[in-house]
Amino acid sequence: MTLNLGVLISGRGTNLRAILVAAAERRLDARIALVLSNRPDAGGLEVATRHGAPTQVLPHQGYASRAAYDGALVEALRARAVDTVALAGFDRLLSGVLLKAFPGRVVNIHPALLPAFPGLHAQRQALDYGVRLTGATVHFVDEEVDHGPIIAQAVVPVRDDDTEETLAERILAEEHRIYPAALQLLASGRLRLEGRRVVGGLP
User: Is 51 a catalytic site residue?
Assistant: First the structure.
């Protein structure tokens, strides 16, 4: 099936670009139905426009609760007939309101080998802890931070001379590779979520 994809962003949109390019090159059976940002200055909005994808800005300020904001997100996504939601640098925690609206169809990318180093500054956490390997994880989203059944991971060695910036750059290259591939598994029907168990995955 062709995914009707909604992509949520807050920043510069490098993973969004990887998804858009994969779809344009037919490596990903997806139509980008909506790119939605909570921040009007997000660079990813320009990325989406250059690729001809529709955009919408929905600032999170002014809502009584996280659930109320998520209700507005659901309304915007459903208005575009979205069936799968990809988080690509979206800096808001999601509530059950959105997750229940798209059960088993909300995915995220995180710059660490989860369950290690959830939350912000995962690359700095890896350096501070002194690990020799880190990487990137695509996972289904639940109501906990960077938690949920894992779909795909890629390993990145940590070099002795790495800074947070150099490590982040190499991890990002892996994110751009595995995120479209993981979404294609959903599109092809070779991946599904049964309870908390992922059935299928990357070889």
Answer: no
- Give the integer Cα–Cα distance in Å for 112 and 70: 26
| CATH code (residue 14) | 3.40.50.170
pLDDT in tens, 65-90: 999 999 999 999 999 999 999 999 99
Asked if residue 118 is part of any domain, the answer here is no
H/E stretch holding 22: helix 14-24
In this structure, is residue 96 part of a structural domain? yes
Task: Give me the domain span that covers residue 8.
Answer: 3-108+139-147+174-192
Say if 159 falls within a structural domain. no
Question: Exposed e or buried b for every residue in 161-182, given b needs 16+ CB within 10 A?
Answer: ebeeeebbebbbebbbebbbbb
CA–CA dist 100, 150 (Å, integer):
19
CB contact at 8 A, 16 and 49: no
pTM exceeds 0.85, yes or no: yes
- The catalytic residue among 110, 121, 139, 147 is 110
